[in-house]
Each structure stands twice: as structure tokens, then as C-alpha cells.
Amino acid sequence: MANIKEEPLPLDIILVFGQKKIPIHLDLSSDDESKFITVEHLSNKVYKETKVEPSCQKLIYKGKALFKTDDTNSLKEPISAFGIHNGDRIMLLARKLEPADAAEKPSQAKKKKDSEVIDQQLNEVDNTTLQQRLEDVQSEVEKICLRCDELVKDSRRISESLALKSCKRSFVLLHEDSMKLLERVDAIHSSNNEEARKLKKSIVGSLQVQLDICEKEIGDLSQKLLDD
Known about the structure:
Blueprint (H helix, E strand, L loop, with lengths): L10 E7 L2 E7 L12 H12 L6 E5 L2 E2 L6 H4 L13 E6 L4 H5 L4 H16 L6 H28 L3 H26 L7 H34 L1
Parallel strand pairs: 1-5
Antiparallel strand pairs: 1-2, 3-4, 3-5
GO molecular function: protein-folding chaperone binding
Protein name: BAG family molecular chaperone regulator 1
InterPro entries: BAG_dom_sf, BAG_domain, Ubiquitin-like_dom, Ubiquitin-like_domsf
């Protein structure tokens, strides 16, 4: 675990969930025995704000998952151990509940089993190498970056309502594609390969930049449409 530097309480961060940016306010209640805000505090708060069960959450900060659903010890980690500060952004990827899960809340044993199945699926390696898999994703990210640059240029030239709507829709689709790639790269485990880990971190950083651009352009185009 990294050296813990206690952050001043309360702590305010931004949760990025799809195209939503949700303010998350974290503080310790008077009857809380914890000395630090932990990952579990954050996970519970995320559940209250999004209704995504902790067992279905994947919380990512700077390309690193904050906890594993089958590792209760990781939930007790202070979030300051990850270098999280006021105003930082944390991304949420959510696994959808199956109909049976939604109808009946699974037991802890079933949650653990489901988590093990998910981890097994994510760890299945095809015939390509880890490096090749990441390079394949990187190639797709580069295409998204080029497409994003083109759309930004287009958005500066157009003014007609139909063209603005079409451009906005293109940014929405690009945002969705970026999220799918982020989920895909998150499923590639590279902890034992330093070179792959660095490449994965670089890819995640590039995708987060593209997501930021898409969100800004969607907001700007929405405002232009309102002004018209």
C-alpha cells in the first residue's frame, strides 16, 4: 500500500459515469470508527448516487481499479493511498445485473461466485499476446482521436440546426465508443508486465482526454441549439 497522506475532510470528487458527471461528497459521520475515508465509504456513496450495487462497480482512478469485488481487504484501503484529492475524477464502469439478480438479491456466496466467473472471463487469453491486444486497442484509440479532431473542426464551421444536431449525435456515438474501449482495456490484466502496464495507462489517459473533449463538445453544441 502507498504511503497514506490524510486528506482534509470533507472530500469532494467527481464521479464520471457514462456521460454523467456526479459530484460525490465524502465525510465521516460522528459515529464512524474509521480514521480515514476508505474505498468502502466511496463505494457505498456511489451506490446511493447511482444505484449500482458495489458488487457491480468498477471504480477507476488514473487507470487503476480501486478494489476487487471478491477482495474485502481492498475495500478497507484509505482512498488517500491512491493519491485521490479534492476535485479529482473517478470513473465508474458498471456490470449490468441479470434479470434473476434484479428479482432476488444474491447472497454473499453467489456474489463471490459471480465475481469469480467475471474475473475468469476477463482473464481468458486469446491466441494473441498481451502486448498485441493492447496495441490493437491503441490502434482503435488513435482512430477515435483522429475522428474526434475532425468533428471538432466540423463543429467550428457549421451553424445550421440540422448540421449541429448531426454533429452532436456523432460526438455522443464517439463518447460511447470511447467508453466501450475503456471497458475493453480495463479487462486486460497487465500487473505482471511493466511495459504492458505503462501502455495500458497511456491508453486509458488518451481515452479520458477524448471523453473530456466529447463531453465539452456535446455541451457546447447543446447550447448552440438552444440559442438557435
